[in-house]
């Protein structure tokens, strides 16, 4: 799926503001995550990295050169091997959990950022929302245009390195299930 500029702008908007029920597609995909620590901090980490990647998708040319990384949070650059800063414990543990669950080792930061190239067909999802489920659990919602099988290891890398202990999914879910997690 090629992500049009308008689509990326809408995705970026959904990072800042919860989408309305009226704009929701009929089905979404969900990833259930278990988190040690603050769900609010976890959500903020995910949103900050995605914001940087989507802003790059809107402002940079993905012509084969290295993308600028100054907007990418330092912890994510560190866990993705792009700088020598100390990797926070939650990110280091998440990278180990990712490798155990998915394999393949650490994502290179430039490779990860290139998944957001608007002309690429690699990324099979678009950010939709985040819901806290309580008791250290949360749900990451993405729009997959109704597909239940799609490329999403870059999302799993982000979810694990942001501090997730476990991730299950993707699971197709009706939009009404997402809507039940938001305030009226």
Tell me what the structure shows:
The chain is α+β, with helices and mostly antiparallel strands. It has helices spanning 5-16, 39-59, 74-79, 89-101, 109-113, 153-161, 175-179, and strands spanning 27-35, 126-134, 137-143, 164-174. The protein has a 4-stranded antiparallel sheet with strand order 2-3-1-4. A hairpin with a 2-residue loop joins strand 2 and strand 3.
Brief summary of the model shown:
By secondary structure, this protein is of the alpha+beta class. The chain has helices at 5-16, 39-59, 74-79, 89-101, 109-113, 153-161, 175-179; strands at residues 27-35, 126-134, 137-143, 164-174.
Structure characteristics:
alpha+beta, four-stranded antiparallel beta sheet
Radius of gyration: 16 Å
Task: Spell out the helices and strands N to C.
Answer: HEHHHHEEHEH
Number of extended strands = 4
Strand order of the largest sheet: 2-3-1-4
Question: What's the rounded overall pLDDT mean?
Answer: 92
List strands and helices in order, with pairings.
Blueprint: H1 5-16, E1 27-35, H2 39-59, H3 74-79, H4 89-101, H5 109-113, E2 126-134, E3 137-143, H6 153-161, E4 164-174, H7 175-179
Helix pairs in contact: 1-2, 4-6
């Amino acid at each position: 799926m090629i992500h049009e500029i308008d689509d990326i702008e809408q995705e970026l908007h959904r990072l800042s503001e919860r989408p309305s029920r009226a704009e929701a597609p009929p089905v979404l995909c969900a990833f259930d995550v278990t988190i040690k620590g603050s769900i609010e901090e976890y959500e903020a980490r995910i949103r900050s990295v995605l914001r940087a990647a989507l802003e790059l998708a809107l402002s940079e040319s993905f012509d084969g050169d290295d993308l600028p990384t100054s907007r990418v949070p330092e912890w994510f650059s560190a866990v993705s091997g792009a700088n020598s800063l100390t990797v926070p414990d939650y990110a280091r543990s998440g990278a180990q959990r990712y490798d155990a669950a998915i394999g393949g080792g650490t994502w290179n930061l430039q490779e990860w950022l290139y998944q957001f190239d608007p002309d690429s067909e690699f990324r099979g999802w678009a950010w939709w929302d985040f819901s806290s489920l309580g008791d250290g659990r949360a749900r990451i919602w993405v729009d997959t245009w109704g597909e239940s099988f799609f490329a999403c290891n870059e999302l799993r890398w982000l979810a694990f390195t942001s501090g997730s202990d476990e991730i299950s999914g993707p699971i197709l879910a009706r939009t009404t299930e997402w809507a039940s997690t938001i305030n009226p």
